[in-house]
Amino acid sequence: MASKNTVCLWYDGDALDAATFYAKTFPDSAVGAINRAPGDYPDGKQGDVLVVEFTVAGIPCIGLNGGPLFKHSEAFSFQIATDDQTETDRLWNAIVSNGGQESECGWCKDRWGLSWQITPRVLMEAISDPDPKAAKRAFDAMMDMKKIDIAKIEKARRGPA
User: Fold this and answer.
1) Strands across the sheet containing 77-82
2) What is the tens place of the pLDDT at every residue in 82-128?
3) Measuring CA to CA, which residue among 28, 81, 75 is closest to residue 56?
């Protein structure tokens, strides 16, 4: 059964490339139907890929090849929870090494301009620690990072020896 709510992401002609990358990179992800334009439209021709149905980490999405008018921004991002440093490194490196760019505090952008938060579960536990001093130390450590380093977060959470 089709989802009642689907995230629609706007691309400039490369929705299929993006969907294919996401399907190869993220668990529980796949490319579904590829719909071609039944006629010419302002930024494409009949037969061009118009809409790609795909899933990213279990979230149903469609990629719309709408042209260059709209760009992605940090106002929307996917937050991917990771279980360990190996998974964090693999996902971060896959995005950045495929034409993406690093940002701050676990954020990065893929080559299509879509923002991702690669967020270890340990980080979320640390910044919500019931001890406000431990939470602040972990938060402060995160603020100095690009890709999250779990060992540094855990060390900051524990505090001085």
Assistant:
1) 77-82, 115-120, 107-109, 101-102
2) 999 999 999 999 999 999 999 999 999 999 999 999 999 999 999 99
3) 28
Determine what percent of the chain falls in helix, strand and coil, rounding each to the nearest 5. 30, 30, 40
Residues whose CB falls within 8 Å of the CB of residue 50, separated by 6 or more in sequence, listed in order: 35, 36, 37, 41, 44, 64, 65
**pLDDT bracket for residue 50 (50, 70, 90):** very high
CA 69/CA 73 separation, integer angstroms: 13
Structural domains of the chain ordered from first start? 1-70 (3.10.180.10), 72-161 (3.10.180.10)
Is 160 in a helix, a strand, or coil?
Answer: coil
CA atoms within 13 A on the CB side of 64: 13
Rounded Cα gap, residues 123 and 93, in angstroms: 18
